[in-house]
Design brief:
Length: 326
């Protein structure tokens, strides 16, 4: 049995001040303003266009949060902030934090959403701000690069596999699979706007001859093929139960006999109370999307069985399920 929370931990859970201080610091780009050498609050205010005495309060809190240091009346970035929060750093992750900031007002409507059951947004922020969407995908691509090859290896593919990476985003998985399996060729299917980024990442990886890009809406357009492997990674939680069921059925028709569908997502367990991160993610999807949701592993497995897949298996708990087209 896990232990009870302490009162201090309950207070900590309800305490979001530091979150908003960090997000605002990133939005104002104070870390980039400090790039290179420590500066006074006045110099930073001049660079970002802010009110100096007010900005000092924010900077002081960022010092206390260990994201900055302060000496001789000058502020400087801590080494972790310099690496990840300065815009021209190759390891900048600020776009992901700016996505949280862009969703801030939606969270303010959570109470109303829970009372009425009505969603408060009619479009995801990626649709209202495609540039932010592209930048966030680029950050996720950089993070995903670390785990992609291990995931590819665990699937133990063989030979000249034709893979479809459906809603493949920046092509993170397709690229990782090509690196792990030298004979594999892939198609990344995604919306035209997203494929502009994919074109860049595929080119940077030198894989233009093995990765094709196919633009379209996977709910409406043909998917090409036939394929030996279709991967659906992190696409289902933006859609309804019914669209997902239909999409899994559609994928079945685009697979060659013996082909497999692999769904990698953030599934809830049977009770819906775990994994912990996913239970909070389900609320995030509720307030920030028009119709998305987190589904249970068993629901994804039922979509597969209904579509005609056999040997439907949960390969990784609440993370990866697979079905085979016999
Ligand atoms: C969270 S990203 C996942 C990207 C990638 N599969 C991964 O695991 O890193 C969701 C992707 O689905 C794409 N997408 C969303 N709706 C789509 C649709 N109707 N048709 C095609 N792609 C879509 C988005 O453009 C985005 O690239």
């Amino acid at each position: 049995m896990s232990r009870e929370l302490s009162l201090a931990e309950i207070f900590q859970l309800g305490y979001y001040w530091e979150t908003k201080i960090l997000l605002t610091g990133v939005k104002l780009d104070v870390f980039s303003a400090l790039d290179g050498r420590p500066k006074t609050a006045g110099e930073v205010a001049g660079r970002i266009g802010a009110h100096e005495p007010t900005l000092s309060l924010l900077l002081n809190a960022l010092v206390a949060m260990k994201l900055m240091n302060h000496a001789e009346n000058r502020y400087g970035n801590s080494s972790i902030a310099e690496k990840h929060l300065v815009r021209n750093s190759p390891q900048y992750i600020g776009h992901l934090l700016m996505l949280h900031d862009a969703e801030w007002n939606n969270w303010g409507r959570l109470e109303e959403t829970i009372r009425t059951g009505e969603r408060s947004v009619d479009r995801h922020v990626f649709e209202t701000d495609p540039e932010l969407g592209g930048n966030v995908l680029a950050v996720l691509d950089r993070i995903g690069k670390q785990s992609g090859p291990e995931f590819a290896k665990r699937l133990q593919l063989n030979g000249q596999v034709r893979m479809l990476d459906l809603g493949g985003g920046a092509g993170t998985n397709a690229i990782a699979f090509c690196h792990v399996y030298p004979e594999l060729t892939a198609t990344v299917f995604d919306l035209p706007a997203t494929l502009r980024l994919t074109e860049k990442t595929v080119k940077e990886a030198g894989l233009e001859s093995r990765i094709a890009l196919r633009a379209g809406n996977f709910n409406q357009d043909g998917l090409g093929g036939p394929y030996d492997v279709v991967l659906m990674s992190d696409i289902l939680h933006y859609q309804t139960f019914e669209s997902n069921e239909a999409l899994v059925g559609k994928v079945f028709a685009h697979l060659a006999p013996g082909g497999r569908l692999i769904i990698k997502d953030r599934f809830l367990d049977e009770a819906g109370t775990g994994p912990a991160w996913t239970t909070a993610f389900a609320v995030h999807i509720l307030v920030n999307t028009q119709q998305g949701g987190c589904f249970k592993t068993a629901e994804a497995m039922r979509w597969m069985s209904k579509a005609g897949f056999t040997a439907v298996t949960e390969l990784e708990k609440t993370a990866v399920v697979q079905g085979v087209k016999a």
